[in-house]
Amino acid sequence: MTDDQTTPKTRVADAFAGVLDDIEPGLGLSDPRPIAVGARHPHRETFDRELQEVKDSVLRMGSLVEEAIRAAIDSLVRHDADAATAVIVADAGINEVQRKVAAMITATIATQAPVARDLRFLLTLDHVAYELERMGDHAASVAKQARKMAPYPPLKGYVDLPRMSEAVAQLVHGVLRALVDIDHVRAREVAAMDDEVDALYHRIFDDVLELMRQDPANVDRGARILFAAYYLERIGDRSTNIAEDVVFLATGDIEDLNP
Amino acid sequence: MPSTLTAPTDRDDGSGSLPTAPPTSATRGVALRIERTAAEPLPGDAAGTDPDAEPAVDLRGVSVYYGSFRAVKDISFEVPPNAITSLIGPSGSGKSTLLRAINRMNDLIPGTRFEGEVLYHGENLYADTVDPVEVRRRIGMVFQKANPFPKSIYDNVAFGPRINGFRGKLDEVVEGSLRRAALWDEVKDKLRQSGLALSGGQQQRLCIARAIAVQPEIILMDEPASALDPRSTLQIEELMSELKKNYTIIIVTHNMQQAARASDFTVFLNMGEDRAGYIVEHARTIDIFTNPKNQLTEDYVSGRFG
C-alpha cells in the first residue's frame, strides 16, 4: 500500500512527539492533578506524564465538541452558511486529536504495562475519545443541515431545536466534568439528564410531523430539522456512554446506564 | 490420599505406582469478566474454587524469627488446592521466608524460630511428631537458580524415588515425571547425559521433574523463572498451569506480569514499620490486577510504591 496524501494518519511510534505543544485543555476543565488516582510517583514519571497528556488531549476534544454543538445550532438560527461551513471544517481537527489519543494510548499500553486503575484509565479514555469523535461528526451533520436551510426562512423558530442543542451541550460538559473528577455519582446524574433530551426529541418529532401535514411546503425544512434533532439525540446517547466509562473508571464495574 | 506424616518406619508405600492425579477435578479457571453484581462472589471469596474443598495448606498465625528479628508476623491464609497462588511484595516483605516456612526449609537455617501453625490435611507440620523430611517430600521446592545434581538427567529424576526406597518401575517414574515437566521430548534420547549440559530453561524443568518424581502434593517455587529468557519463562508458566491440575503451586515472584499471567490467587505482602512482613491483600489475581481493594496494593502493582 502506498501513502495516500489525502488520508490523515497518525503513527503510534510518533504518538508523543510534540503533539500537545499547542493543546490546552478546554472547557474550563484544566486540572493539574493526574486523572489517575495513584498520584505522581518518582518511579513512574514518564508514565504519569503520558497519562496527563492523554487526559489533556481528551478534554481538549471535549471542549471542541461542545463548541461545535453550540456553533452548529447557532449557525442554523442565524442562517449563517459560512459559520456552518466552519463547523464542518473544524471537525477534521477533532478527528486529528482522536487519532493522536488512540496512538498515545496504544504506545503507553505497549510500553508501560499498565494495570488496575491505570489500565482502566487508558481503556476509558480511548473509548471516550472514540465517542467524542463520533459526537463531532454528528455536530458537523447538524451544521450540514443548517447550511442547506440557511437561504430559507425559519420554520416556526426551528421548534425546540435550540433548546435541545443547549441541553445536549450541557450533557457533554457535565459528563466531562464527571470524568475529570472521576465522580461516578455525578456521571449517573448526568446520564439521567439524557431523558430530557429524549423527551425533547420526541416532541420535536411530533411537532415537525404536524407542520409537514399542515403544509407540503414545510416538508423540505421539516425533514432537515428532523435530521438535526436526530443527530443531537445521538450525541446525548453517546454522552451516556461516556458516563458509563466514568463509572467503570471509578468503580471497575461495567454498567449500562441507558438500558 | 495422604496418611500420617509421622516418621515412617518404612517410607515405601509399596504401590510402585506413578504419580496419580489428586481427587479434585474441578477446573480452576478464573472468570475473564471483571464486572460484578452483588450476587456474584467478591474477591477473597476464593471464587473459582470449590468452597467446600479443603485448603491444600492452611497457615495460621505464622511468625518466623531470625534470631531476635521477626521476618514475618502473624500471617494467616488458606492456599486453595489445584490452583496457583503467587506471593508478591517488595524486597524484605518476607515472601521467601514465608514460602520456606511452608515445607520447613527454614529449619535448616540456624537461629530461626517459628510460631503459629501450618495445617496440612488438618495436621500441624510443626508438631513434634512430624518428620521434616517427609514434609519436604509432600511439599516440594524449586529454586530461583536451577540446581540439578551433577548427575545424568535420568539420575536427577530418579534420585528422590531411590532415596525414598521406591521399588516400582523407576523408568516409568522418570518418564512420567519428565513428561509432566514438559521435558521428555527434548531429553528422551539423552537421558544418560549430564543434567548440567541442558539449557537454563531445560535445567529448571529438570528440577521440576525431580520435584514431582517423589509424588508431592504441593510445589513451592521461589522465583523459578527470574534467571530465564522470555521464551523459557513463558514455557515454565505454561507448565505451571498444566501442573496445577495435579498439584497445588505456590510461587514467589518479583515479576508483576508473571503473577498476573500465571497465578489464580495473589497474596501481597509488605514490610511493616517494625520491618516484619504482613499481608496487605489476598484475593483473586484478576481482582488484584484490575481493581484491588487496598490502595497500597494498587500502588504496588502499578509501580507507584515506596
Task: Produce the secondary structure layout.
The complex is a heterodimer of chains A (259) and B (306).
Chain A: H1 45-77, H2 81-112, H3 116-149, H4 161-180, H5 184-214, H6 219-251
Helix pairs in contact in A: 1-2, 1-3, 1-4, 2-3, 3-6, 4-5, 4-6, 5-6
Chain B: E1 57-66, E2 69-79, E3 84-88, H1 95-102, E4 112-120, E5 123-124, H2 132-138, E6 139-142, H3 153-163, H4 170-180, H5 184-187, H6 200-212, E7 218-222, H7 230-243, E8 248-252, H8 256-262, E9 265-271, E10 277-284, H9 285-290, H10 295-301
Parallel strand pairs in B: 3-8, 3-9, 6-7, 7-8
Antiparallel strand pairs in B: 1-2, 1-4, 4-5, 9-10
Fill in the keyword field for this structure.
A: 259 residues; Methane Monooxygenase Hydroxylase, Chain G, domain 1; 6 helices; elongated; B: 306 residues; alpha/beta; six-stranded mixed β-sheet; 10 helices; 10 strands; 29% helix; globular
